[in-house]
Amino acid sequence: AQSVSQHNHHVILSEAASLELGCNYSYGGTVNLFWYVQYPGQHLQLLLKYFSGDPLVKGIKGFEAEFIKSKFSFNLRKPSVQWSDTAEYFCAVGPGNNRLAFGKGNQVVVIP
Amino acid sequence: NAGVTQTPKFQVLKTGQSMTLQCAQDMNHNSMYWYRQDPGMGLRLIYYSASEGTTDKGEVPNGYNVSRLNKREFSLRLESAAPSQTSVYFCASSQQGINQPQHFGDGTRLSIL
Hints:
The structure holds 2 protein chains of 2 kinds. By secondary structure, chain A is mainly beta. Chain A is built from no helices and 12 strands. In chain A, strands 2, 5, 6, 10, 11 and 12 form a 6-stranded mixed β-sheet that branches. A 4-stranded antiparallel β-sheet of chain A has the order 3-9-8-7, with no helix packed on it. Chain A has a two-stranded antiparallel ribbon with strand order 1-4. Chain A is globular and about 40 Å long. Chain A starts with a strand and ends with a strand. Chain B is mainly beta. Chain B has no helices and 11 strands. The interface between A and B is medium-sized, with 23 and 27 residues.
């Protein structure tokens, strides 16, 4: 079964700082990779996804993620965060049968 | 644009009571899912239904049952609620296929006393 690891569960940073959240997975086959965001009191929303092709994926709200196959990683980045980026971020991995394995999440707090 | 609709949004139960959480989607998706979200644990899959007429256990199915009533609706039942089932429950749906993202409902916050 696949597993997903997210590090640094709690991240606190100031506006305009850069953000990088790590995601590592364990699965030997072809995977589909996702980042979801959950704003306070809301449901999960898709930020971006990777299936194939260019390993640098751009998502909504200025987020991007890079798939590095050799490192089994799919790290999320944003060059300059805003207060409105305060949320919990989840990495998810799917081997292709519609089932997703989620990481435990990164709680990100952006201080104005 | 309803998407995935969950009812109720909040519920408090006593230990041993039964409860059914309802989920409906209007996106004509084949696959539906039930997750629970607990602090520091992320989302864990309880049950899923790859298509109408099929259901399968996920990571944490004990204490739960599901029914895929039709293509739109997928309900989750707690027959005898326990305090360990206090959680936020999310329903999701997706098109069938390997590249399809899941769309989530707003969640049901369930407390078991």
